[in-house]
Each structure stands twice: as structure tokens, then as C-alpha cells.
Design goal:
Helix 22 runs parallel beside helix 23 (691-697). The protein is an alpha/beta fold. The chain has six domains: 113-179, Arc Repressor Mutant, subunit A, CATH 1.10.10; 201-255; 281-466, P-loop containing nucleotide triphosphate hydrolases (Rossmann fold), CATH 3.40.50; 471-517 and 578-711, Rossmann fold; 518-575, no CATH class; 722-813, 2-Layer Sandwich (Alpha-Beta Plaits), CATH 3.30.70.600. The protein contains 26 helices and 37 strands. The strands form nine sheets. A seven-stranded parallel sheet has the order 15-16-14-17-18-13-19, with helices on both faces. The chain has a six-stranded mixed sheet with strand order 5-2-1-4-3-6. A six-stranded parallel sheet has the order 20-32-31-23-30-29, sandwiched between helices. Strand 1 (6-11) and strand 2 (20-24) form a beta hairpin.
Length: 816
């Protein structure tokens, strides 16, 4: 080894087991730091953005280290503590560190190279070219280089590489890889008077005496400058004056106006407009208890009933932390929840708030990332969904996980399959910060940890302002159908309550946890229903778009006029979704405004905000929706909540079905009567004597917990046992079965009765891939790291068998 050789290990955004080593110069070694981005060649010709993971002088033994292409940053773009947290996620959830990087980074930071086509000036044999090749050659005569995407547009086809390959062989063109920067800061044009004309208004107006429009624009400039001390935006000045940009350009040429650009954030929340509200006695006691507990044990479970004012308590905790110069991470499970929270927190904290979730553009996310990295005043509080746990915090003082029981905190696909709440607890420990887990219906695991002293527990059992908990009644659908008291999917009890509520100008929420018009269409003659060609599921009817759609792969087709199997035109809808309920409501309540909140109506960037704000301002009288409605939303004028069918959730084949049903129904019920008037909740069910539904009506969380925790103990489920699930996928059913049996038998030798499977799930084929699942239960005294190490060893043996190499195996740690 030469002593003047320097190397870096680079983390690439690829599912690779380890980092790759690249050669650098001594100057580059002195400049580079861990966490900087570098462009590196990987594979035959591709160039990727990688992260400097380690700087050293050890040359790799089994391959020649390539040189890096270029350094992309002046300073690190992520922190060493963040890399340490990512390494924990990679190790604990059994995935590659590169997969964590890909999930965490805004894609504008992960520059990939683009293949550029260049012409060969020495090429003269034009007659050899095919018609497609000649079009490419002609385009290259007009411009020096074109990208692959431009070639696709020129030829109006996707498969262009065969043509390019032939042209390379004929030496008509050559290819090169070019890196391009994707992130573009937003620049805003401002305008100011040239220094030569300062304090010379009279002289200036005389100079412009022949140009009326230029005079008007100058006078408007001085008028706006007198009103505001801030710099004037060029666009705003032109709008207010009604003068065209050409007139302004003329003033610039005359040296009167000077235009300059400043970098501006794409999202800004302005100044704080009000103080954090004073807490009630109960809230103040809860706040002091939380402070005491986090000082002692760092983790506090805050069990506060719906409508108890948890957000105001969080606001006081956040204010205390940012006063100490530290950052706060506020996690929420759904983007829908951020809509109301942004409005409330922005009033208290103004521009100290930043928001991070997938409905924001990549450039907006990049700006939030940079603010957090620099510890900017604009990112003292970060409100985000689960991916916000992966951001580059440097002075983290508090993490709040709101609605901590929510399944949305768990990432299922793609890897890393992490749980944001659990990853947050580890992140808080690394930063030596505090963490508060809040919920009206805590997860059994969290409540179990609180009962066993692992977490501190604070309870708040009264609603804010002495508002009473809602009255919850069960409506027996079996009896209503028997007595013919149903109108569509509405019982007479629910319809009467809705009419009474609407008469006094109050609002109604209706909950049905299935989107679309109907789960399936069936032929009345032969009973066949249209199936998805790619998945083992029936197609869901969406009447608004007049189509059948698969909710697993997105396949869609027009609603058929007759049965595909027997040709009968007698087709009918079975079951019902939010769209069908909306249609029925339009008939039943034609004089009222109906809104729908589900995945279909919230596609756009501001989809959630538009519907929630319209409902909040009284523009919608009845809002029907899926589980998006159930989480933390606060509507003062809602006094009635109706659940149209509670049985679907209870009968779901999952060990958490009863716990999740209790949580969902309690949360939905909590949207009712949050102001002064007591709310009413009507739950329609075919089984009103079910223990979970009875516990929901009495708000008996502890009773539900005791029953469920006993069942979990008896049947070896979390929190007593840990779980790891293996999902195997392949398009060949027989090969998948063979591979799953081999893997199952190999693991059975080690795990015995604690291994379940391999079995086919309820939906056994998705996107033309067949699926098999294997479940491993880990007893309390068994070492989890040793279990994972053995599992990894068996998987490596499985991958080494040639015919099984094509089978995709996904490992999901804590698969619940």
C-alpha cells in the first residue's frame, strides 16, 4: 500500500449489503467530511450520488478502487448522529443502509446521471442509417447533444436503445453520462431605484415627461415604498400599477430601476398571531406531570380522552423546548391531520414552524431539510408524517408522537419497514432528548410498557371546558332489516338523528371505512364478478369515473354492460363504499351540501385542506369519509357521528382486529360534541352485543386492554412475543411453493412450534406476483439479535441456491 493513497467508503442509495470504496487525492481527503455527497461511477457506465461514510487509507483487497467523479457539497448534507440512527434502522429492521438513505433523502439530492447522445463529426455514410436513425442524426445537426428522453420524443417510442446501439456500431454517435443538479432554489425578483436617482424625484419626473406609463410606474413605486419598509417585489409592483413588464424593462435600460434576485423559501407561515391559550386546571396538572416524568424517564405516555385539549398541552411543551434553543419534532400519522395542525400551530409559532410530508414537492422538502440541518429559526418545530423521523436534526430537544397507536406509523413497502414511533424512541435516546407519546386509545404495546414502568404514564380523563363525552348508541341492523326500517344503508334511527341535527344548523360526520361505490359487481344470473387480471381480488366499482378499479395495483376498466362469463345484462352492486353513501345522501338530503373525504377526493396537493376547510367553515353539512376522518380532527359544530357498518373491522383476519376496531370507533366518536353541546354517536351493526362495541359505548379502554392483553399472552402475540414476518414473491406459483417449503423447513428446525407457515395470505397474488408468508414468533427470553443473525444465515443459504435466487424475500421485523 502506498502511503499517499487515500480512500473513502461511499454509501449508495441501492439495496447493497455494504459500502463501496473509491480512491481520492490527498487534497480531496483534506476537504471531504463524513456526510458530504460525491458523484461516483457504479456498474458499467452509471453515475450515482453517494454519501461519504468513512475516510481512510486502506485499499480494498478484492477490487480496484475507482476514482470519484466530483464532490457535490461544500459542507456535510447530513449529520453523523443521523447516520448512526440510520444504521440502527438498517440493523434492527434487517434492510440495507442504502434503502434507508433512499427513503430519507428528498430525491432532488440523489442526482443520477443521464445518458447524453453526441454526434460524431467524422461520420459521412448517411445512406447506412435507418429512418429512425436518420431522425436522430438530423436532430444532432441542429443541437450539439440530446438526452435519451428527447430521443424518445423524437421517435415517439419508448424502446430507443436498439436504434442507438446500431448507430454506435456505425460510429454515427457516441454516448456519455452527465450529472445534472435537480434542486433549484426559488429566486424572486425585487426592484429598487438606482442610486443615481435617489432624492431626485422632481428631476426624474421631468426626465420621464414624455412617457406617461413610465411616470405612472415610478409614482406607484414611491407610493408602495412609503406604505411598506420591506423590499418591493417586481411582480407585485407591476400588478398594483397595472403596467406591463415591457415598460419596466424600458426603465431598467434607462438606468432608473435596478432589478435584483433573492433566494426565497417556497413555503412560509408568516408571523405568529396569538398567544398559546391558558390551560384549564386539569390540563395544567397533566402538563406538570408530563414535565416531571420526562425529567425522570425521558419517555411519557400521555393518555388523554378525545377533546381533552392535548394539542394545547403539546404547544406549551414545545414553547419551553424552543426557548432553550432546541428543536421539536411533532409526528402525526396522516397528512390529513397536518392541515388543521398547521393552522393552529402557525398561530402560536409563526415562521418557526416547518412541515415535511409526501404531498410537498421535492424542492419544498429539500428546503425544509436544509433549514433543519443548519438549525435555522425557520425549523425550530418540524411537523411531519413518519418520514420526518429521518431528518438531519442537530439540537433535538423533544419528540411528540401524536395518535401513537396509529398503524400509519408503520412502513410496509418498500424497505426500510420501520415503525416511526419505535424509531423515534431510539432517536430521542441518541439525542438525549425527551419523547411524549399521545393518544386517547394507546396501543397495547405502549400501555403495557407504561404499566410495567418502562414508560411514565399521565392520564387526562376529562374533556376541555367541562364538555361531556358523547352519548354512544348501538343500532341493531338485523332488527331494522327485519322490521323494514332501512332506507338504503341508513336506519330510521340514524336518519331521524341526522334530520334533527341539520334542522338546528349543526354538522354530521358519517364513517364508512371503504372507498369507491361498491366492493364488487356481481352477475345475478351466474354469480361471477369481474376480477383484476393482475391480482386475486374483485374490482371495486367507482361510479363517478364509470370504472372498475383494483385497489392493489391500480388496474382499471370501464364498467361492463353485460356479464363477461354468461352475457347477462343483469348486474348488481354488492356492499357499499363512501361514494355510494354520498349518492344516497344527495337523494335523501337534496337541500344540503354533501362532502366526501377519502383517497379518491384528496389526490391533489391541497386536496385535504380544501375539504377540511370547507367543512370547518360550514360550507359542507354532511361529511362522509374513511379512516382519514377518525384522527385528531377538531370540528366545533359537529354534534352527530354515524358509523354505517362496524362489523367489517371486527371480522378482519388479524390478531389486532379488536384493538384496532376499538381505537377506530372511539376516535371517530371523539369527533362529536367537542364544543359545548353533548355529542351523539350512532353505530350501526349486525352484532350489537359484541364485547368491543359494548366497551366503545362505555369508553372502557382499560377493560378492553385487560381482555386483549390476556388473549395475547395465551396465544403468544405481542407485546409478550416479538414477531418477524417473511414475505416471498414470485410470478411462478410452483417455484414459489418449492422455495417457501424449503425456507419453512429450514427455519422450522430452529424455531419449532413458534414458526407459522408458509401460508398464502387472503390476497395471494398482487401485480402478477404470487405471495407466501412465514411468521416467526420470538419468546420473551429468546435473544432477538441471535434470532435475526440465524434468520440472515438461512436466507443467505436460500439465496445461494440458484433456482431460488429470483424469489423476492422481504423481511418485516415487528410486523404489526
Amino acid at each position: 500500500m502506498l502511503f499517499d493513497s487515500y480512500f473513502i467508503d461511499v454509501l449508495l442509495p441501492l439495496p447493497l449489503e455494504r459500502q463501496f470504496t473509491y480512491r481520492i487525492t490527498q487534497e480531496e481527503s483534506d476537504f471531504l467530511e463524513i456526510g458530504m455527497r460525491v458523484a461516483v461511477p457504479f456498474g458499467k457506465s452509471k453515475i450515482y450520488t453517494g454519501i461519504v461514510y468513512k475516510i481512510h487509507q486502506q485499499e480494498p483487497q478484492i477490487y480496484d478502487a475507482k476514482d470519484i467523479e466530483q464532490i457535490l457539497d461544500d459542507t456535510p448534507i447530513l449529520t453523523e448522529l443521523q447516520l448512526k440512527h440510520w444504521a440502527w434502522i438498517s440493523s434492527y429492521y434487517m434492510c440495507a443502509l442504502g434503502e434507508v438513505l433512499k427513503a430519507a433523502f428528498p430525491s432532488v439530492f440523489l442526482l443520477e446521471s443521464e445518458t447524453i447522445v453526441l454526434s460524431n463529426p467524422d461520420f459521412t455514410d448517411h445512406d447506412l442509417l435507418s429512418s429512425d436513425a436518420y431522425l436522430i442524426y438530423e436532430a444532432l445537426q441542429r443541437q450539439s447533444q440530446i438526452s435519451i428522453s428527447q430521443v424518445s420524443k423524437i421517435l415517439s417510442k419508448k424502446q430507443v436503445f436498439p436504434t442507438l446501439k446500431t448507430m454506435i456500431a456505425q460510429e454515427a454517435i457516441r454516448l456519455k453520462e452527465e450529472i445534472y443538479e435537480q434542486y433549484q432554489p426559488k429566486m424572486v425578483s425585487y426592484i429598487r431605484l438606482d442610486t443615481a436617482w435617489e432624492n431626485k424625484l422632481e428631476e426624474l419626473l421631468k426626465f420621464l415627461s414624455r412617457s406617461e406609463k413610465q411616470r405612472t410606474l415610478v409614482l406607484c413605486y414611491f407610493s408602495e415604498l412609503a406604505k411598506s419598509k420591506n423590499p418591493l417585489k417586481k411582480k407585485e409592483l407591476l400588478q398594483k400599477s397595472g403596467i406591463s413588464a415591457a415598460v419596466c424593462k424600458g426603465l431598467e435600460k434607462k438606468g432608473i430601476f435596478e432589478v435584483y434576485e433573492l433566494q426565497t423559501d417556497r413555503v412560509s407561515f408568516g408571523e405568529a398571531s396569538q398567544q398559546i391559550p391558558t390551560l384549564s386546571t386539569d390540563q395544567s396538572i397533566a402538563l406538570e406531570n408530563i414535565k416531571t416524568i420526562v425529567e425522570q424517564s425521558d419517555i411519557c405516555l400521555f393518555h388523554g380522552v378525545t377533546g381533552s385539549g392535548k394539542t394545547e398541552i403539546y404547544a406549551h411543551l414545545m414553547q419551553q423546548v424552543i426557548d432553550q434553543g432546541q428543536q421539536v419534532l411533532f409526528l402525526v400519522p396522516e397528512i390529513a391531520l397536518t392541515t388543521q395542525l398547521i393552522i393552529r400551530l402557525q398561530r402560536f409559532f409563526g415562521d418557526q414552524l416547518s412541515v415535511y410530508h409526501s404531498k410537498y414537492s421535492q424542492n419544498e422538502r429539500a428546503e425544509v431539510w436544509n433549514h433543519i440541518l443548519k438549525g435555522s429559526a425557520k425549523a425550530k418545530i418540524v411537523l411531519g408524517t413518519r418520514s420526518a423521523i429521518l431528518l438531519p436534526f442537530s439540537h433535538l430537544g423533544l419528540i411528540i408522537v401524536d395518535e401513537e397507536h396509529e398503524a400509519s406509523y408503520k412502513q410496509y413497502d418498500p424497505a426500510p419497514r420501520y415503525h416511526a414511533r419505535d424509531a423515534g424512541i431510539v432517536l430521542a435516546k441518541m439525542h438525549k432528548s425527551k419523547i411524549v407519546l399521545g393518544s386517547a386509545t394507546p396501543s397495547l404495546e405502549s400501555f403495557y410498557n407504561a404499566k410495567n414502568g418502562k414508560y411514565g404514564l399521565v392520564s387526562l380523563n376529562r374533556r376541555f371546558g367541562q364538555v361531556q363525552m358523547p352519548n354512544i348508541h348501538l343500532v341493531d341492523l338485523k332488527e331494522k332489516h327485519k322490521k323494514k326500517r332501512m332506507t338504503g344503508h341508513f336506519s330510521d334511527t340514524l336518519l331521524t338523528a341526522m334530520k334533527e341535527t341539520l334542522e338546528v344548523k349543526e354538522q354530521v360526520i358519517l364513517f364508512q371505512n371503504r372507498r369507491g361505490f361498491a366492493p364488487l359487481i356481481a352477475c345475478e344470473t351466474c354469480g361471477v364478478s369481474p376480477q383484476c387480471p393482475n391480482c386475486d381480488v374483485s374490482l371495486t366499482e367507482h361510479k363517478f369515473k364509470h370504472e372498475l378499479r383494483c385497489h392493489y395495483c391500480g388496474y382499471h376498466r370501464a364498467i361492463p354492460l353485460k356479464c363477461d362469463a354468461c352475457g347477462s345484462a343483469d348486474l348488481s352492486s354488492k356492499g357499499f363504499g363512501t361514494e355510494q353513501i354520498e349518492n344516497e345522501l344527495l337523494t335523501l338530503f337534496p337541500d344540503h351540501h354533501i362532502g366526501r373525504l377519502d383517497l379518491d377526493t384528496t389526490r391533489g396537493k391541497y386536496g385535504y385542506a380544501k375539504i377540511i376547510e370547507a367543512f370547518q367553515h360550514g360550507e359542507i353539512d354532511i361529511l362522509v369519509g374513511t379512516q382519514m376522518l377518525s384522527k385528531g380532527l377538531d370540528f366545533k359544530n359537529v354534534t352527530l357521528v354515524g358509523v354505517l357498518n362496524a362489523d367489517n373491522m371486527l371480522n378482519f383476519p388479524d390478531f389486532r382486529a379488536h384493538e384496532r376496531s376499538f381505537q377506530m370507533l372511539t376516535q371517530v366518536a371523539g369527533r362529536s360534541g367537542r364544543n359545548k353541546k353533548q355529542g351523539q354517536v350512532l353505530i350501526q351493526t349486525f352484532n350489537p352485543y359484541h364485547q368491543i362495541l359494548q366497551q366503545v359505548t362505555t369508553n372502557s379502554y382499560v377493560q378492553m386492554y385487560e381482555e386483549q392483553i390476556s388473549d395475547r399472552r395465551n396465544f403468544f402475540y405481542p407485546p409478550h412475543f416479538r414477531m418477524i414476518q417473511l414475505t416471498l414473491k414470485h410470478k411462478d406459483f410452483n417455484l414459489l411453493n418449492e422455495g417457501a417449503d424449503w425456507l419453512g423447513k429450514s427455519l422450522k428446525n430452529s424455531f419449532g412450534k413458534h414458526l407459522l407457515g408458509p401460508t398464502s395470505p387472503a390476497v395471494a397474488r398482487v401485480r402478477n406476483l404470487y405471495i407466501k408468508k412465514i411468521l416467526i414468533k420470538i419468546p420473551p427470553k429468546q435473544s432477538v439479535p441471535d434470532t435475526k443473525a440465524h434468520l440472515q444465515k438461512v436466507q443467505n443459504m436460500f439465496d445461494a441456491i440458484g433456482r431460488f435466487r429470483a424469489i423476492r424475500v422481504n423481511i418485516d421485523v415487528d410486523a404489526y
